[in-house]
Amino acid sequence: MSTTTGQVIRCKAAVAWEAGKPLVIEEVEVAPPQKMEVRIKILFTSLCHTDVYFWEAKGQNPVFPRILGHEAGGVVESVGEGVTDLQPGDHVLPVFTGECKECAHCKSEESNMCDLLRINTDRGVMLHDQKSRFSINGKPIFHFVGTSTFSEYTVVHVGCLAKINPLAPLDKVCVLSCGISTGLGATLNVAKPKKGSSVAVFGLGAVGLAAAEGARISGASRIIGVDLNANRFELAKKFGVTEFVNPKDYKKPVQEVIAEMTNGGVDRSVECTGHIDAMISAFECVHDGWGVAVLVGVPHKDAVFKTNPMNLLNERTLKGTFFGNYKPRSDIPSVVEKYMNKELEVEKFITHEVPFSEINKAFDLMLKGEGLRCIIRMDA
Fold it and tell me: What superkingdom heads the lineage (predicted)?
């Protein structure tokens, strides 16, 4: 039994004290896990655009001081009351959404939107007692999406932890706990392109390239990447993208360009930008009769999707997805196995690595639009 079980752990965490200001490495106190909670030692974490979005806090409720971070890999240190399917030493990926296994969504084969543990970006406390497990000199520091992985130790609800193969390298598979699985699952689980089909991917950031990777794994013969940044096109070839379209190069709407390229439209499209115009284009560029468009990107809260209803009546399908339709506990372990079996390539998503003490460098890289995923090593 761990000597720290039941004790408060003092460790380093990167604290966001206020919106848009550099994170500060502080010594924090991490309380023991309570009912249905697990305390984990984070070994590797990475930066996702969502962290930057809530750190900037331009369009959300500012919740500070806060420990951000939600893409990570770690090892269970101790478990709270009622936790039976995890034990100290287990390797886990914390996930920003969860799976209680008891609600209507969890019992449905079609949904992964757990009633209890669905993402809540405003909540800065644990569900059990509405309190934070983090503090500095007795002052609470708020949690972020139930994970807060920018800390050497964190406390997470058991339903938000995927137990994975202990042989899987955590410095690689940690990126599967958010963005990569979101894009990959949007293609594999929702768009479901057939072998030899055509797929358009809108937005060639990490999520979009993961969607392209899903199309590559599915055996799509044409994968058309759509992005306003021409610098992304060369890198995208590594993810199976065969052709590129920059909407800025054309006077007509991009959906018309794609329809002309593909004799009436692509078989499937996946939208990963969250821009409403791209969403509409992604839908209108699929072929009538069988085309399916999948929306992944999160739009502005006031955005409105407008299209002629005939586009639907002509047998095009519009779908949405959340976290690639993966149930965190049930499905993410099998995504890790895809990597272990060499079906899925993860290394190519990882373009930078920094020690924990230089975590702000990861923010700088993302703000400049450089690279895809930056791994943050907690032991350095």
Answer: Eukaryota
